[in-house]
Amino acid sequence: MVAGRLLDARGRRALLLASLTLLIAAPAAAQAHVGFTVGPALSRLSGDAVSSSDSQWGIFLGLAIEYELSRDWQLDLELALSQKGGDKVGIEGGSYDYRLDYFEFPLTLSRLFWINDGPWAIAPFAGFSVGLKTRCAIRPAGERETEFEDCTAVTPGGDTPGTFYGVPVGVAARRRFPGGSALGIEARYTAGLTKGSEVGELMASTNSFSVMFSFVWPLDTRGHGTPSEPNPNR
Predict the structure, then answer these.
(1) In the prediction, which pLDDT does 201 show?
(2) Stretch 76-87: mean pLDDT, rounded?
(3) pLDDT-wise least confident of 142-151, 179-188, 225-234
(4) Domain holding 199: CATH number?
(5) Cβ neighbours for 36, distance < 8 A, ≥ 6 positions apart
(6) Which residues contact 58 (CB under 8 A, 6 or more apart)?
(7) What is the pLDDT of residues 114-166, one digit of tens each?
(8) What are the DSSP E strand ranges found in 92-160?
(9) What 3-state class would DSSP assign to 188?
């Protein structure tokens, strides 16, 4: 229990430090962009206490803060609402549908490989994500007409951890436009690291796969070219 609280505190401090470092230092050293990210996501539960789990649809909706560290490297921080969980989750005592809502903060680093030195780039990425749970809901598996109820310590499987830790990895196609705005399409898999460790918590982690679309524009709107048009500000 103490270790779990310590991990939560360390995770929050690390996220806060990374965010402050980006917001304060990066604009002076790199081009900053802001925008949005949105897309559908499939997630499922896994762990020692879970005998089976089907995937569940959700959504990822976030504010994107992007920094060009150089022409070929990019750092992204997202402030998002993410829906996770699983359908027909088999645990001791029965099978249930779980829905888990989080405020999630993924921080990822991308390496951009430009196609023929033009405006398109293929960008593999990886990073770390922290999520703060806003709701856990449960219902008997497959009973679509039954409303979800909030999880408590006495619901099947108990409540779920309040903090989610994950490792997002994936690949994106990015297109830069004259003026500095950019469009992105990405496939992302987030491996959940968090498992319940206290009495009454579901001993499971959440893994998710999503296809997302993003659009960002520069904070500094003074002339910026595309990658195929050299710009002294880059």
Answers:
(1) 62
(2) 91
(3) 225-234
(4) 2.40.160.20
(5) 61, 62, 63, 64, 214, 215, 216
(6) 40, 41, 42, 43, 82, 83, 84, 85, 99, 208
(7) 999 899 999 999 999 999 989 888 888 877 778 888 988 888 877 777 888 99
(8) 94-111, 113-114, 120-140, 149-150
(9) strand
Tokens 């099947």 -> residue: 156
**Which domain, by its residues, includes 62?**
2-218
Cβ neighbour number for residue 24 with a 10 Å cutoff: 9
Those residues whose C-beta lies under 8 Å from the C-beta of residue 190, and which sit 6 or more positions away, are 106, 129, 166, 167, 168, 169, 207, 208, 209, 210
3-state SS class at 20: helix
Give a yes or no: residue 225 inside a domain: no
In a domain, 229, yes or no: no
The single residue listed with the structure tokens 């802001």 is 34
Residue 38, in any domain of the structure? yes
Alpha helices in 79-191 (DSSP H): none
pLDDT value of position 199: 46
- Beta-carbon contacts of 5 under 8 Å, excluding residues fewer than 6 positions away, are none
Look up the pTM and report it: 0.77
